[in-house]
């Protein structure tokens, strides 16, 4: 398949593995930011074929996984209301809130619908003027532009029964927070190529310089990832720390000006809590005052949310790269994709789901298991 097969070529992959091996003289820890990259790495066994000195740390770039529990609980409360049609992408329906999920709300009679675009939700609002239609807008810089455009369209067309439950997050502040953590082991980042397709690369040089960390914009196919690793290791071995674009077929330095303009019109930057990680300053977007009437939190006044995280789930440590999924005592036992205890087991981009799906089923040692609170 064009643009896929040539980026999985085994001969070229072997050459890149050889180059990485030849470059590597000491241990290095690299973080791939995006959950899509994590799945590609685990699926193709890239981490197992790298030199022992190269450790890949799986980052927090899974939108479903980092959506705060409080926001999930707000979604559950709004979706339970009889006047509401609650629309979402399918992977949010099984994300556990405090005790239940959107599937449970649906089974109890809530009008919860899976859609494939926020514009589908807008169409439902147009077709059902007597109902309140809410779209669950989560994700990174990649999903924010179409959600922004949908709110823009709703306002332009005067569709007043549509609103957005917003939980958008931004990658650069997360990189900053990871580097500021006292437990940080990351020495280089593979930045998410699709995020940079939208936002460009302008936000990264300052981070690379301040934290003395190489940042390589990387794609998602095996050769993309290997080339990102090769460039990151080459910088580390040379003592350099700059931003490189290893995904030029998709990423321009300026990103997509049209998408960025839409984001700037509809959203404003805000502090945002990340599930399992906590509050990260200026790491999210919310609707700007001009579009506040389309904010579902504002419209439905969902307050007094009492959240309760699973006491077993260690997804916060997984999301910060502090443990591998199979080091959680619940992995593959109480927690599976059919019965997830945490969001990282639900999402198709979650690290726990990737380890389960691709059979990384090593059980933790007794000592690791006993440390679970
Ligand atoms: S395996 Fe399940 S319980 Fe353990 S960290 Fe992952 S999602 Fe949480």
From TrEMBL:
The gene is hypD. Keywords: Iron, Metal-binding. PANTHER family: HYDROGENASE MATURATION FACTOR HYPD, HYDROGENASE PROTEIN ASSEMBLY PROTEIN HYPD. GO terms for molecular function: 4 iron, 4 sulfur cluster binding; carbon monoxide binding; iron ion binding. Belongs to the HypD family. This is Hydrogenase formation protein HypD. InterPro entries: Hyd_form_HypD (IPR002780), HypD_1 (IPR042243), HypD_2_sf (IPR042244). GO terms for biological process: protein maturation. The keyword Ribosomal protein does not apply. The keyword 4Fe-4S does not apply.
């Amino acid at each position: 398949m064009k643009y896929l097969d040539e980026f999985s070529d085994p001969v070229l992959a072997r050459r890149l593995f050889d180059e990485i091996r030849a470059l590597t003289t000491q241990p290095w820890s690299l973080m791939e930011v995006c959950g899509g990259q994590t799945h590609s790495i685990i699926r193709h066994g890239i981490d197992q074929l790298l030199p022992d000195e190269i450790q890949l740390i799986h980052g927090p770039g899974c939108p479903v996984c980092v959506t705060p529990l409080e926001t999930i609980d707000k979604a559950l409360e709004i979706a339970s209301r009889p006047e509401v049609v609650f629309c979402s992408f399918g992977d949010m329906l099984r994300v556990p809130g405090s005790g239940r999920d959107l599937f449970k709300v649906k089974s109890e009679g809530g009008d919860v619908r899976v859609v494939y675009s926020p514009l589908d939700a807008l169409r439902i609002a147009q077709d059902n003027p007597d109902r309140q239609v809410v779209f669950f807008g989560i994700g990174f810089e990649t999903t924010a532009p179409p959600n922004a455009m949908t709110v823009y369209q709703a306002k332009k067309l005067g569709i007043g029964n549509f609103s957005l439950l917003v939980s958008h997050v931004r990658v650069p502040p997360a990189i900053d927070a990871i580097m500021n953590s006292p437990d940080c082991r990351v020495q280089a980042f593979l930045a998410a190529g699709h995020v940079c397709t939208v936002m460009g690369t302008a936000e990264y040089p300052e981070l690379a310089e301040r934290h003395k960390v190489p940042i390589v914009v990387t794609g998602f196919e095996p050769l993309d990832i290997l080339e990102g690793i090769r460039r990151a290791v080459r910088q580390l071995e040379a003592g350099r720390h700059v931003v490189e674009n290893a995904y030029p077929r998709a990423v321009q330095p300026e990103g997509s000006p049209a998408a960025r303009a839409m984001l700037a019109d509809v959203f404003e930057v805000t502090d945002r809590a990340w599930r399992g990680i906590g509050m990260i300053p200026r790491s999210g977007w919310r609707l700007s005052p001009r579009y506040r009437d389309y904010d579902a939190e504002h419209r439905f006044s969902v307050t007094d949310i009492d959240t309760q995280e699973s006491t077993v789930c260690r997804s916060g440590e997984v999301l910060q790269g502090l443990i591998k999924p199979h080091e959680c005592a619940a992995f593959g036992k109480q927690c599976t994709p059919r019965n997830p205890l945490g969001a990282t087991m639900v999402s198709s981009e979650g690290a726990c789901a990737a380890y389960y799906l691709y059979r990384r089923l090593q059980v933790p040692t007794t000592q690791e298991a006993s440390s679970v609170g």
